[in-house]
Amino acid sequence: MLSTRQAPTAQEFPTATLVIGGPWSRGHQLDPRPAVVVGPFGGPEFAGEANMVVVWFFTLGAPEPGDSVQAMFPHELTPLDDSLTTMNPDVFRDIVCGLRRGRFAYDDGDALRAAVRQAWRERAGLADADLAARHTLHRS
Asked: Across-strand partners of 94?
């Protein structure tokens, strides 16, 4: 019996989505491991038409294009039921530290860095304080 489920699209994997996927190394796909979506392949201006997403396999080390940062087809990824805000604190700390040490091609990492900063604020309980402060400033 054929499945009627359609293949996932790149648009179903927004920046900061936690996924499981198998990175590629020397023409061979490695065992699946966790990763985080950096953004659409080609950058945010191609979000609506991208066929691939750029992911960072953070367990492979700091972001480095080709090694730990790769373009993947959506059917190669499985989204996780977790987020940067709710994930294991030790793993989140590894992501924060890795972002500081690594690099992305072009400006691919900007949206992910912003999402990680926002998650850090939420985890620290500062996001509500930021919102309250902005609300108070606007009322003044």
From this structure: none
| pTM value surpassing 0.90 | no
Measured in whole angstroms, the distance separating CA 93 from the mean position of its chain's CA atoms is 15
Q: Return d(Cα 20, Cα 75) in angstroms, integer.
A: 11
pLDDT value of position 2: 53
| Nearest alpha-carbon partner for 96 in 112, 108, 111 | 112
Secondary structure (3-state) at 11: helix
Question: From the first residue on, what is the mean pLDDT of each consecutive set of 10 residues in the chain (140 residues)?
Answer: 73 96 94 96 88 96 94 96 95 94 85 95 77 49
Q: What are phi and psi of 91, to 5 degrees?
A: -70, -40
Distances (CA, A) of 74 to 11, 40, 94, 97: 9, 11, 25, 27
Strand partners, 37: 55
Nearest 10 degrees: Cα torsion 98, 102, 106, 107: 30
Residues 6+ apart with CB under 8 A from 76: 21, 22, 29
Give the whole-angstrom CA distance, residue 13 versus residue 87.
17
